[in-house]
Amino acid sequence: MNFILLLYFLLIILGARKYPKNQPFAKNCFSKEQCLSLRGAFAVLVVLHHAGNEINGTMLFSQLYHFGVWATAGFFVISGYGLTVSLQNKKEKYLGEFVSKRLRSPVFPYFVMILLYSAYFRIRDNYTLKDVLNTFLIGAPIVKNSWYIIAIMYLYALYYIFAKLLFLKGKVRSFILVNFVGAAVYIMLCRGVGFGTWWYNTVFCFVVGIIFAAYEKDIIKKVKKHIVPVNILTAVLLAVIFVCKIKLPRGTDLFLGATVLFAVTFAVFVPLLCMIVDFSKNAVFKWIGKISLELYLIHGLVIEFLKTCDSVYSNGAVFVCLTVVLSIISAWIIHFVLSKLWFVKNSPHHDNIK
Q1: What does the H/E/C string look like for 258-281?
Q2: Domain extent listing, the chain
Q3: pTM greater than 0.85 (yes/no)
């Protein structure tokens, strides 16, 4: 089964490019095209992560349990960055369309997916409306792994309020601080009601994205002369934290703390890496990046369906391959249908970056 992961990383490597010598990386290391490819790669990693959790994989494949943090940390930092760059460029105009475009964009597809999942579980397990509502109360929404959509809507709502009150008045530091506090409150709320740690262990990465966008020029100015050693040191730090994390007992506060630290460090590493590596030419992941929201939402249902097929579920490699392929096909179909029913130009992963 290791070949699946090797193929995944091979696609990333083959799609990566060095920046041309006549093109300074600082011009736009976190461009819209760059982030589109990254979203595609992160979305596939989420699918592999959740599919891998369902089977007894090889030693390498079993480590996917830890890799889900990489993907959601990447999604959050891209979202925080994209919102803030757009806010800097458009200011009042951007906030004027924020509710109608940003907050609406995840809501409609998510509602459609709730109906789709509910219909499936109604047929398979005779779910009632009460059962569906109960899944949200216990922290396991009927749309599998959709905690991220709920988290991002919460963060978007706070972002909008704080942007009006602080950012437009030039209080950037206060704006960053209150978004950090808002993320901390979200964590406390999730812990208070007993939700799983995956609900909140990467939310601070959203704030990392805001910080990078707000001080991008200053950051690039300070690191550009030493960008290679900075990347090496950050990668080494990530490796050390990762090794420490996997040695800690799961479910403990130490493990949670190590996971949060790893997620934040990875969120810092992503834009740093994009200063020396251009992922924007990766045709495969750019193609998948266009449907990253739909892929994120539908792959849980594909997994549930394939688990009912004993001949597929008993073969780990076949199960994972079919999960990825069917999820991508289903996501494109849903994306096409929704685009005909609703103008969905933006989503939690489709921020307009400069």
Answers
A1: HHHHHHHHHHHHHHHHCCCCECCC
A2: 23-341
A3: yes
